[in-house]
């Protein structure tokens, strides 16, 4: 197995959504076949949606099998020790042609108790934003379960939620319990815990193609919501050819790399690394082989790759567990 360590890419897992569009194709060149593709799952071990390798000697193999065969080499020694053979993160690109539902995700304890799942701490990086695009992130002021329910029942929930105008390059960190929604006109890179647990609070009374409203989870959400006001925006530096910290939390670390020339990278073997190319293009040289990536590509660097060189002109998100 050790001879087959190299940068891994995976077939995108494409998801049609009532709010989806066509930017995953027109901007990121994903092979979508519908006009309502909302999500491209780039790297996943969610049951029923396990990523399949698309390049090199391991093409066609499941990510879960690679981890079982070589957990330290793929995940890293510390990640393997902490999570066993579970891949702890899920990576997506999202295209919101319309507003997403207002929703919330449970924390680890609640998700474990109710769903035998991880919670869903996540972050968003805005890759493209139409003019006047907004997101909803938490409450305008500290609230309470009683106030929240009153506004939900009176159809005035939006009046107490914090609506924020966003631009390309903005980054947001959403701890579990944060009431949130991605607004129309946004193309977003999302990094999150491996979980597909979402409680939908309000869906603007939309109906699907069959004329049905989507299920809401009002009761489940009550205990999951954090009713405090807090700041979700994450400013960051943009020093060229360096890893600039955006988020550093127990679940993942995300850095921003504005690549303009050559950058040498050394790793310890403690954790895998994922690169999401959010603009431009770059090359990675490892073991006398050059691998090429463009906007919209996601690549998993196995933990056993301890030294390599990246070069090009690109904006890259660098994610690992520390």
From TrEMBL:
SUPFAM superfamilies for the chain: RmlC-like cupins
Taxonomic superkingdom: Bacteria
GO MF annotations in UniProt: isomerase activity
Coiled-coil region: none
Ranges of residues in domain Mannose-6-phosphate isomerase cupin: 246-320
InterPro entries: Carb_Metab_Reg_Kinase/Isom, Man6P_isomerase_Firm_short, Mannose-6-P_Isomerase, MPI_cupin_dom, PMI_typeI_cat, RmlC-like_jellyroll, RmlC_Cupin_sf
Phosphomannose isomerase type I catalytic domain ranges (all copies): 11-116
Keywords from the UniProt entry: Isomerase, Metal-binding, Zinc
One Pfam family of this chain: PMI_typeI_cat
Name the UniProt record assigns to this protein: Phosphohexomutase
Organism expressing this protein natively: Flavobacterium frigidarium
Top-level taxonomy: Bacteria, Pseudomonadati, Bacteroidota, Flavobacteriia, Flavobacteriales
């Amino acid at each position: 197995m050790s001879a087959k360590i190299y940068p891994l890419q995976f077939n995108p897992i494409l998801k049609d959504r009532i709010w989806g569009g066509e930017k995953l194709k027109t901007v990121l060149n994903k092979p979508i076949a519908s006009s309502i593709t909302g999500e491209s799952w780039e790297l996943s071990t969610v049951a029923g949606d396990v990523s399949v390798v698309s390049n090199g000697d391991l093409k066609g193999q499941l990510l879960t099998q690679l981890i079982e065969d070589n957990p330290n080499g793929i995940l890293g020694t510390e990640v393997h020790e902490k999570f066993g053979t579970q891949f702890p993160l899920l990576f997506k690109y999202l295209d919101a042609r319309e507003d997403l539902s207002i929703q919330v995700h449970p924390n680890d304890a609640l998700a474990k108790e109710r769903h035998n799942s991880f919670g869903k701490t996540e972050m968003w990086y805005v890759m493209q934003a139409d003019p006047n695009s907004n997101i909803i992130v938490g409450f305008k002021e500290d609230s309470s379960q009683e106030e929240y329910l009153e506004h939900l029942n009176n159809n005035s929930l939006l009046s107490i939620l914090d609506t924020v105008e966003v631009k390309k390059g903005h980054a947001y960190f959403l701890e579990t319990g944060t009431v949130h929604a991605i607004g129309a006109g946004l193309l977003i890179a999302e990094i999150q815990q491996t979980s597909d647990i979402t409680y939908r609070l309000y869906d603007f009374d939309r109906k699907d193609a069959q004329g049905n409203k989507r299920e809401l989870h009002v009761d489940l959400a009550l205990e999951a919501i954090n009713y405090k006001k807090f700041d979700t925006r994450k400013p960051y530096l943009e020093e060229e050819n360096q890893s600039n910290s955006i988020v550093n939390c127990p679940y993942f670390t995300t850095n921003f790399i504005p690549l303009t020339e050559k950058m040498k990278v050394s790793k310890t073997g403690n954790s895998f690394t994922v690169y999401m190319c959010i603009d431009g293009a770059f090359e990675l040289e490892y073991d006398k082989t050059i691998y090429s990536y463009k906007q919209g590509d996601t690549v998993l660097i196995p933990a056993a790759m301890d030294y390599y060189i990246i070069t090009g002109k690109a904006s890259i998100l660098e994610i690992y567990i520390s």
